[in-house]
């Protein structure tokens, strides 16, 4: 069982679309997959569930990720176990997202101060979402847990990162995306180091509940190509994409290496640190969103005609390869 989060401070880099497709591809390769939507915008949820399902999860007795942490927010106790939604006839589950999840940010921010002060409650609150994921995933023999987050360096994302086994950075080869990745390594290294030393200090025996190690492995980057227009596969694109490995080296690997914790042993085995190329699928992406299916499962009934059939088949082959690669790197 491995959890992976796709993380970038820059928005709109295709995190959600990629996470969704990778999850379905991993399931087709024989794995049990659990998605967790921890972006309060709920785009991943909207990609998988119909409105009726989401409405039910948000109702009073429903099971959304907010419902899990609601007792903590309201000062009424610890995290509440919730059931994920199972996709019909598939080995795919999702913990349904919720716009109200942003209410948890403040609580997590206080919890961080408590962690640094060596207080047990800080660990309890910070590990809340981690614990509901672990509980379900271990009881149900989940192979891959894929977590989707919003593009920011807030306290919710800090708790998610510290609760993950692996993180991957999606990159668009342009000035903004490279700039957006410059502070990632430094911020992550800070979080990891602080959590690690605070946990050492308080001692595991004081924590009567499951807490994450807080040492997620950096597992490479994904090169997103969907903003590259056919007519403009420009020099600029090649210039920026060729700079990515150097950026990763300097701004991500460098600061993480300085923590002296074992979080780089995976990435250093990956050539140029790249785990996947995510191609431009143009109009097939909105078609997949409307049909609640990945591109590689779209058929003529979903509106795929003519040339599109070829793109659907290309996408299937590409994601089979991506799933293989991820499975061989993250075991
Ligand atoms: N491979 C692709 N080919 C074409 N369009 C894509 C591709 N991937 C994503 N898109 C489009 O780009 C937009 C952003 O994608 P997505 O929502 O996956 O990004 P994100 O990084 O999750 O965004 P956010 O930071 O807001 O969560 C969407 O409108 C989506 O339809
Ligand atoms: Mg998203």
From TrEMBL:
Q: Which SUPFAM superfamilies match?
A: P-loop containing nucleoside triphosphate hydrolases
The chain positions of domain AAA read 1-187
Q: Which InterPro entries match?
A: AAA_dom, DNA_Partitioning_ATPase, P-loop_NTPase
Please state what the protein is called.
Answer: Cellulose biosynthesis protein BcsQ
Species, as recorded: Chitinophaga rupis
